[in-house]
Amino acid sequence: MIIEEYYTRLDGPEPLSALDLAEPDIAFLIALPGAEVTGDGHADLQDYIEGRPAVGRRHTVLRRSVDGDLEMVYGVITEGDGRGTGSFSSVALISPDKRVARYQAFFHPGFGMFPLPGGAA
């Protein structure tokens, strides 16, 4: 899955390598509590990636699904100590070139489908 590899790269030692999996004109929405980040194109996505604090977090995918050109994942965000800080769901429209064309992600620190590692649901 392209979106799962995107998260693997985003959390890895070279987060900007995630851009290799995105179309140059990618459109995205990242919904966070109290804020939305939107953008169009590699430059906007790069700005978002570079602006993320370096806190050692990881996207741990718990469920995944593919329906044609649409990929969906659900998971939890874990800190370096393994403690869960929230859950996320993401949907990506995959281009014919097998890159993310459109991307939508939602994060919530309190509500989730499953209990968070080291905490409650």
What's the structural blueprint in terms of helices and strands?
Layout: H1 2-11, E1 22-32, E2 35-40, H2 42-51, E3 58-67, E4 70-78, E5 84-94, E6 100-108
Parallel strand pairs: 1-6
Antiparallel strand pairs: 1-2, 3-4, 4-5, 5-6
Describe the structure in your own words:
This is SnoaL-like domain-containing protein. InterPro entries: NTF2-like_dom_sf. It comes from Pseudonocardia oroxyli. By secondary structure, this protein is an alpha+beta fold. The chain has one domain: Nuclear Transport Factor 2, Chain: A, CATH 3.10.450.50. About 15% of the residues lie in helices and about 45% in strands. The protein has 2 helices and 6 strands; from the N terminus they run αββαββββ. A 6-stranded mixed β-sheet has the order 2-1-6-5-4-3, covered by helices on one side. A hairpin with a 2-residue loop joins strand 3 and strand 4 (about 70-80). It is globular, with a radius of gyration of 14 Å. The chain starts with a helix and ends in a 13-residue tail after the last strand.
What's the number of extended β-strand segments?
A: 6
CATH level-two architecture: Roll
Shape category? globular
Q: Any idea of the CATH class?
A: Alpha Beta
Estimated helix fraction: 10-25%
Radius of gyration: 14 Å
Domain count: 1
- What is the residue-averaged pLDDT? 93
Quickly give the structural class. alpha+beta
Major sheet:
6 strands, mixed
Tally of individual helices: 2
What is the CATH third-level topology name? Answer: Nuclear Transport Factor 2, Chain: A
InterPro entries: NTF2-like_dom_sf
Organism: Pseudonocardia oroxyli
Protein name: SnoaL-like domain-containing protein
